[in-house]
Design brief:
With 328 residues, this protein is of the alpha/beta class. Helix content is 45%, strand content 20%. It has a six-stranded mixed β-sheet, with helices on both faces. Strand 1, helix 3 and strand 2 form a beta-alpha-beta unit. Helix 3 packs across helix 10 and helix 7 packs across helix 12. The longest helix has 23 residues. It starts with a helix and ends in a 6-residue tail after the last helix. The N terminus is likely disordered.
Length: 328
């Protein structure tokens, strides 16, 4: 064989070897993860919307990943218990799965955060919880605007409550700017809040639809709107924007968070986000999520981070108006 031909063949073989090697190396991080069982730590109790969503995903992702995906409920301290459990694991197979509202509001609650906030690393956005604005049925109001007009006419007579620090600040900011004299009542548990709503001891309650659904279906409370930017399928309720109160808009973001020091690779994070997106697109999964009052809202790590940053900036702007400063 001619020397030039031999050289050309050698070059072609070398190029092919490089190409084959690249095919095997490029997705290596994604292909080698997971190497053991994966854990989703949920900062809420069994039966919550986040818990149901986590278990749906765990079931489907187990098949995709070839490793068991287990869900561990670690409720308490407004999400701090769950976050610290994930940090303590120091494991790239253990993730926080839950609402961002459990940690976005923490700087306004704690003089010293009980965890390192820089550890939180967004991995995948999954859904948005449907947050409903509820009133006692006995109040006989037909809309959010009507309720607020009634509160305006009776300063100091109406009480309100919400589930998270984030919604506390958002609602308080609106009431202040609108010149509404309404008293904020805090609760340690949602059951007490719902009971007080039914009995008209509070006149407005902002909570996940899953929390207030049974009382609404029983006719003891009335739902006026959802805070989400988009309507919830199957619920004939306007958004806060459609109800004429855009200042009360809030999306209850839910997603997967890793701990930065755990070293979850970029390839693994990309694979998780892609697989989550594929799973929530499955009709049976999507139908179940919607039935538990969650809006399908998958996103990459970058998209999830952007959503969290937007939520934090929105909260900071309102807190500044209220004169509420981070306690650190």
């Amino acid at each position: 064989m001619h020397t030039k031909s031999i050289a050309r063949v050698a070059l072609n073989l070398a190029a092919m070897a490089v190409a084959v090697l690249a095919v095997h190396i490029a997705p290596a991080g994604a292909q080698t993860w997971p190497q053991k069982p994966v854990k989703f730590v949920v900062p809420l109790g069994p039966g919550s919307g986040a818990d149901i969503g986590a278990r749906l995903l765990a079931d489907r992702l187990t098949g995709r990943w070839g490793q068991p995906v287990v869900v561990e409920n670690r409720p308490g301290a407004d999400g701090v218990v769950g976050i610290n459990a994930v940090i303590a694991a120091k494991d790239d197979h253990t993730f926080f799965y839950g609402p961002t509202s459990t940690f976005v509001g923490h700087p306004y609650l704690h003089s010293k955060l009980p965890y390192d906030a820089t550890e939180l690393q967004p991995v995948a956005r999954v859904t948005s919880t449907v947050v409903a604005l509820a009133v006692p049925a006995s109040l006989n109001v037909a809309s959010l605007k009507e309720l607020l007009a009634l509160a305006k006419q009776q300063p100091g007579k109406f009480n309100w409550a919400s589930v998270t620090t984030v919604t506390d600040i958002i609602f308080a900011g609106y009431f202040k700017n609108a010149g509404l004299d309404m008293t904020h009542i805090t609760y340690k548990d949602t059951v007490s809040a719902i009971n007080d709503l039914v009995e008209s001891r509070i006149q407005l309650y902002g909570a996940a639809y899953a929390i207030v659904r049974s009382q609404a279906q029983g006719g003891r409370i009335k739902l006026l709107a959802v805070t989400n930017r988009t309507r919830a399928p199957g619920l004939d309720l306007p958004t806060a924007v459609e109800a004429g109160v855009p200042e009360m808009s809030f999306d209850g973001l839910i997603g997967l968070i890793a701990m930065r020091s755990a070293g979850v690779s970029e390839a693994a994070r990309a694979r998780i986000a892609a697989d989550v997106k594929a799973v929530v697109a499955e009709p049976t999964v999507a139908e179940r999520l919607v039935s538990t009052a969650q809006l399908i809202n998958p996103g990459t790590a970058e998209e999830f981070k952007a959503s969290i940053d937007e939520q934090a900036a929105h909260l900071a702007a309102i807190a500044k108006q209220l004169g509420v400063k981070p306690k650190q």
